[in-house]
Each structure stands twice: as structure tokens, then as C-alpha cells.
Amino acid sequence: MSASNPSGEAVEPADQPPAASRGPSLAVVVGRGFSWLTLSIVAGKLLGGVTQLLLGRWISDEQFGDIAIMLSIAAVVKVFQDGGVPQVLVQRGAEAFDRTMGAAFWLSMALATVSAAALAVAAPIIADVYDTPMLTSLLWVVAASLPLGGISTFLRAKLRVDLRFKTIAYVAMAWFVIRNISTIGLASAGFGTMSLAIPLVIVAIYEAFADYYATRIKPWRLPFGFSQWPDLLGSSFWVGAAAVSRGVARMGDYLALGIFLPMGVVGKYFFGYQFTAQVLELLATNLQHVLFPALSRLADQPERQARAIVRSIRMLVFIAAPVSVCLAVVISPLVTILDEIVWNHKWSSTIGLMQIFAVTAPMRMFTDLLAAALSSQGKFRSSAIVYSCEGLWLVVAASIAVAIYGENLVGLAVLISLAQAVFSVGASIRMLRDFGIDWQSCLRSMLPAWFVALAAGGGTLALLALLPAGSAQLVLLICGGCFFGVTFIAMARVFLAADLMELAGLAPAKIGRLARALLLLPSPPLAYDRASK
Question: 3-class DSSP state for residue 523?
């Protein structure tokens, strides 16, 4: 990890915060950080895709239902491993972090320990509610990972305060490798649902060591600082509430469906959603790591912050829309092939659900950006309220979908995905008015790239219809991907040239130069040149 350089030597320019008088602007640092994290998480998601392919062969739909409930509860409970304290320190800045490091660390660890004990006690009760005895053991493993994960979460906050996104990206790459390889190994050895629980402990141990190596800070040697705990707890309450609400907003449909539907149906829903939600998840993760600390530095500059938010929306959609819509186009031949050669004909019934969630993915991700913007101004209460409303909205939507469509996966996907998209777009337009961003600017940032991707998808389907009847699924898959890629790039070069230019400028230097050459784009602004050196 050359960016970490714990020996004390100078770090690489892309991995240090911008100086006031030289170097790239904060916008470029944000873009560079987003690029590094995106590349790392793309690599991780590709490995995760391979893992899901293999798990689809070794694990049944009922077991995937158990996994869905476990991961949903873990997403909510893991928030309490630090109580939101590191988030508060990131928002307050480097000086506050150093001043309250010891107290914040010990408070985080106390909260993690209490949370682990509470989950361990509640595990049998939760298993009874879902009539799934295996959940008890699964949740006990999750509980064991909480204190370990609390250490790495705190140390990573230091990297976020210093905007060391490149280092975070390196740690994340190894995290993905370790988690997925351990999952594959355990699943192949017959551990079943435990193959997704045990790696939580393994990667928590890895992260603690990796983040310590990167930061070389030792908060456990500092005093407990009990006198500072009330202030930290008061500030972190709404951070924790927002994080809990975010967990419900992301997993509430699984929790609701698990109560009303057989675990086999929940497992198919979970498998299909996860197969198509990779882009949405990696962008949401990047938002939390990059935009929150970066926008926090612009909290006292509302005009610059507003411009950064609008640019972030455009960049997010420009990345998510083509990938998601392309996946919707090729998902049928892809799943058909995999069902034939890998999955033993278990998952073809999820194709329609996958297509719906893939098409709507770009419109379902704005709540995370909105929450990052609110938190950057210390409005953790507003962030918590937004996520709480989204979580309640999702649970209600899932319950209504079950009442209307029962076990029909396509019907469930249509109603739930539309409910998510309506809330995400509507809440963002409403709340971003407080940042001086009008609804026209929001829609101009959200819709063009998605519309171009949908047009490219429609054109691709028309071209595929011209192929000979009975064409092999592999031919449809390859032609679909190629047709869409060429069509989208051609349309983007005409209608979204500015977005292409900006994305090329924010990419790592060599990739950006290659993209500009291939697309005949003009030379980048001077700020990008400085950042590329």
C-alpha cells in the first residue's frame, strides 16, 4: 500500500487532501476518490458475482431466504457497533478527531459490546418469529463480528477524515477477496448458510489489522475520556438513528416478505435482487465513503456544495444507468445459460424480477446522496427522518405487494421497485431545495443519462429481434452486450458529451487519456491535468 506509507514518507498526491494553495481542487479529489473506490468495488462485485454464481448451485432457495433475513438483521444491528460516533468525528473534522480520539474509540467499543450481547440474547426470539431455527446460530456469528468490526470502523474514519480514498480502496479490494474466497471455500465444503456468516468474523479481523497498518494510530492506549461521552452520544444519536433507518430502508422488503411468504419465495426474491443490485450497492457504498467527508468540507460554502451535489447526481446516473439497463437487456440469455450449466435450473423464474430491478436501479439510489448532503451539514436528524420514512415506505409497499400479488415475483418487483424509485426521486427533489437546488436542476441531473440508456436498450432489443429465430443464447448475450455498448456510447457522445468529458477527467490518468482518445474528446481542464500528474 504505497498510499498508506506508514514509515512516514510522503504519500502519493491522489491520496492526500488538497492544499489550499496548490494541487487539485476538492471536486477533483472527490472525483478521484470516487474513481478509486468505484474501481475497487467493481473488482469486488465481479468477484462477488462469481461467488453468487457458485452459491446459486450449492445453496437452495430456502437457504437463501434464511440468508436474506440474517443479512437484513445484520445490516441494522451492525450500526450499533459504533453508535454513529465515527460519523460524527468525520463531520467535525481532523482537529476534533484528534482531540476526542480516545473517548470516541472506547465509547464505540462499549456500544459494540452491548450490541453484540443484545443480539446474542435476541437471536432465539428472532428465529422463532421467522420460524427458522438456523437463524439463532447465524445471528450468534454476526454478534461475534460486531466488536471486531467496531475497531476497523473507527480506524477507517481517520482515513475518511484525511480523504485517503486510495488507501480505503486498497483495503476494500483485499476485503472483497478474503470474504468471497472464504465464502466459496466454506460453501464448497458444505457449510450451507454458515458460509456467509463465518466470513463476517474473518474480514472483521482482517480490516482491524489493515486499517491499523494504514493509520498507525492506537486509540486503545488513550484514556477512556468518560467526561466526553455525553457530548459524543448526544451528537451521535441521530447518526445512529439514520444508519438504523438506512438498514431498514435497504432490507425492509426482505424482513416484511419473510413474515408473509415462504422462505423459498423470499430466497428467490433475494437472489434475483442481489444479482441485479450490484451497481446500486457499490455506488451507495461510495457515497458514504466519499461524498460525506468531502461535502463536509464545503458545509460553509453553500454554492459550491450545491454544485458538487448536482455534479455527483449526474456522475452517479451516468455510471449506473448504462450498466443497469444493459444488464436488463442481456439478463434473459445470461440467466438461461447459467441456469443450464451452473444452477441446475433453479433460478430462471427470477428473470422478470431481475429485469425490473435492473431498469429502475438508477432511480432508486438518490436517497444515499441526499443523506450524505444532509449529514455534511450536521443535519443527522433530517437524515434519520428521511431514511425512516423510506424504510416505512418500503415495508408498507412490500406488504401491499404481497396482498396484491402473493408469490408472483414479477408483481412484487414492479410494485416495490416503483415505490422505491418514487420515494428516492421525490424525497431528493424536496429536500435538496434547502441546498438551493431547484427541481428543474435535479431532474436535469437525474434523467438524461437514464433516458439515453433506456433508448439504447430499446434500440438493442430492436437489433436483437433481427437475428435469426432460434439463435443460441450465447449469441444473444454477446450481441446484446456489444449492441448496447456501441449504441449507448454513440448516443452519449452526441447527447451527453459534457458528462463523458467530466467522467474521463475524474478517472485515473491513464484511463482518462485513453477514453478521451477513443471518443475524440477535447483536452481536459487544467485542474484535471494537475491532478493527473
Answer: coil
Mean pLDDT score of the chain? 80
What does the radius of gyration of the chain's CA atoms come to, in whole angstroms?
A: 23
Global pTM reads 0.70
Contact in structure between 531 and 32 (CB atoms under 8 Å)? yes
314 contacts 445 by C-beta, under 8 angstroms = yes
Distance, CA of 166 to CA of 246 (rounded, Å): 26
Rounded Cα distance between 483 and 477, Å, is 10
Contact between 286 and 41 under an 8 Å Cβ cutoff? The reply is: yes
Taking the C-alpha atoms of residue 137 and residue 201, their distance in angstroms, rounded to an integer, is 14
**188 Cβ contact partners less than 8 Å away, ≥ 6 residues apart:** 54, 58
* DSSP output for 10-74: PPPGGGSPPPSSSS--HHHHHHHHHHHHHHHHHHHHHHHHHHHHHHHHHS-HHHHHHHHHHHHHH
Buried b (16+ CB within 10 A) or exposed e, 86-111: bbbbbbbeeeebeebbbbbbbbbbbb
Q: Residue 141: what pLDDT?
A: 92
**d(C-alpha 315, C-alpha 319), whole Å:** 6
At 100-152, the pLDDT tens digits run 888 888 888 888 888 889 889 999 998 898 888 888 999 999 998 888 888 88
Predicted pLDDT at 409: 94
How many other C-beta atoms are found inside a 10 Å radius of the C-beta of residue 123?
20
Distances (CA, A) of 152 to 138, 141, 158: 22, 18, 10
Q: Would you state the cell numbers that stand for residue 448, as one nine-digit string?
A: 438524461
Instruction: Examine the pLDDT at 429 and tell me if it is beyond 90.
Output: yes
